[in-house]
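Appendix B, Record 12. Input sequence as logged:
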Amino acid sequence: MAIRACVFDAYGTLFDVAAAARIAAQEPGREAMAETWPRIAEIWRLKQLQYTWLRATADTHCDFWDVTQNGLDYALESTGMADPELRERLLQLYWELAAYPEVPPMLATLKEAGLNTAILSNGSPPMLKGAVDNAGIGHLLDAVLSVESVGVFKPHRSVYDLVGKEFGTAPGEVLFVSSNCWDACFGAHYGFRVAWANRAGEPLDTLPGRPDHILSDLTTIPDIARS
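Logged structural output:
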């Protein structure tokens, strides 16, 4: 079955979620972050995700911006860096996340090949628009799909259903790409063809489904889609 659409998770897959803490640490007057910023970024992302899973399980959905702020508050408190001004700066930078370097040419190659491209994300529409606009990749995407249209976070099946509703595709006609192993596994369990962008070289989670491809970045996505 030929691939008709390539669908990407946003945060950590197309956009560098560690960039906010890294950039803040390089700004004048933030020397105290020189050693702590990687830990802040790690805890922030982990708690952000954990809160989505818990809310999905407990049926207490909220905007992704809320869990993003909640995760940051936990990260700053746990690293002894709680400060209102730093908090506001980090949140501002989160709206300006850069795309990974290989993303624009990779998406352009997919479009030249006649494939549909989309984002499928926990992010709210305003957050995703900010990231897409900042990265300058809007013209390379056919759709930006948010969980807000179904009111539950990934990996609920109704989120993955959004792809077929948008493009009229069967799951096997979709190459789904995520940097989150849990997302890649559940996407595979759903029936997508899946590439896990394992940028950190982490072990495979023991979950339903298994990605078809494990990559260090997104450079080879066009080759995988064509094959």
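The chain has a mean pLDDT of 97.
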